[in-house]
Design goal:
mainly alpha, 2 helices, 0% strand
Length: 89
Amino acid sequence: MVTIEAGIMGMMMMMMMVVMMMIMMIMMMVMMMMIMMLMMVVLMMIMMLMMVMIMMMMMMMMRMMMMMMMRMMMITMQTSQMKRTLKCM
């Protein structure tokens, strides 16, 4: 009788251990998923920042190009009419 009881207790312990292991594994998986999600969010944020930076750079370049073009036009066509138009702008 004692041996059977001990066996049952052992089996119960084993089952508990297995359940605990399963729970731990699930928790680990959840943690990993959370970490992955955080990493993805961070990457997305970095990508967005990079895109914004690139856009800003492009805008700056466009402005510079426009300024250069205006200067060139001023140099090439140094007439009173052109100057007047530029002043208006």
